[in-house]
Amino acid sequence: MPELPEVETTRRGIAPHVEGREIVEVIVRQASLRVPVPEDLVERLIGARIGELARRAKYLLVPLEGEAPGTLLWHLGMSGSLRMARLGELPKKHDHLDLVLDDGAILRYHDPRRFGFVDWLAGSAAQDSRLARLGPEPLSEAFDGERLFTRSRGRRLAVKPFLMDNAVVVGVGNIYAAEALFLAGIDPRRSAGRISRERYERLAAAVREVLAAAITQGGTTLRDFVGGTGEPGYFKQRLNVYGRDGQPCRRCGAELRLVTLGQRASVFCGHCQT
Ligand SMILES: [Zn+2]
To answer: Sorted alphabetically, which keywords does the UniProt record give (predicted)?
Structure first.
């Protein structure tokens, strides 16, 4: 599933190819995504100029300038990806939407499971209800151990689902929560309200570390956004615990354990994480 680093990698990958360009054609091959493609999308987009791309949590924001200014709110869902295609490059199966730009380049949306969507918002995205409730960005100043400590007081919830709550901090999905808890040495089953301020400082630092590393690794495959597979590089990361249950801990050699927390599989080291 594309998580925050993959969306950020996508933003950085496509930005140089789309910013400042005018949309000259829109091809919708499949309108039935998680949110149906708005019927008037084509009409609104033709002739619009693309502004500076932004990201909020796992949403990609594409500002549009012109007669009908607005913002495209793009979510990649479970299996979506955006990449640049060249004029004349035939669409593949599951290539649902093309934005053809004035230099002939095509921004192409691919999504086999169709849990992603693209929606059009009038004006800026800040007032949209999907964005208004979100907690701070994990790589911003607003996110730190103090916030985790304060928000967790009185909470009996296990720390892993607490960390994955978008109202606490956005974009920390299953992979990165598991990896950050390993780096911070915290047992994912531990009650969020019983963890000290010092340990939350370590956890916040670990969240930043794993996300920043994942974005950097995604960055090494940026060329893939033009003419390549368009697959972000998140499986290339060196994962310590995610998906490694039954294998030895890289730090101590103990067998990694699997538990289910908040309906999500969670792998951890019972020796290094307390
Ligand atoms: Zn260990």
So the answer is: DNA damage, DNA repair, DNA-binding, Glycosidase, Hydrolase, Lyase, Metal-binding, Multifunctional enzyme, Zinc, Zinc-finger
DSSP assignments along 162-197, one per residue: HHT-TTTSSS--HHHHHHHHHHHT--TTSBGGG--H
Q: What is the pLDDT of residues 113-158, one digit of tens each?
A: 999 999 999 877 777 888 988 999 999 999 999 999 999 999 999 9
Please say whether the beta carbons of 47 and 67 come within 8 A: yes
Residues spanned by the domain of 227:
145-268
Whether residue 170 is found in the same domain as residue 89:
no
Is 113 flagged in the annotation as binding?
yes
Q: Cα(262) to centroid of ligand 1, in Å?
A: 23
Indicate if 2 belongs to the active site: yes
Cα 229 to chain centroid, rounded: 18
CA of 249 to the centre of ligand 1 (A): 5
Q: Model-level pTM?
A: 0.87
Structure tokens at 23: 């949309």
Pair 29, 85 in one domain: yes
Q: Which residues of 229-244 are buried (b: 16+ CB within 10 A; e: fewer)?
A: ebebbbeebebbbbeb
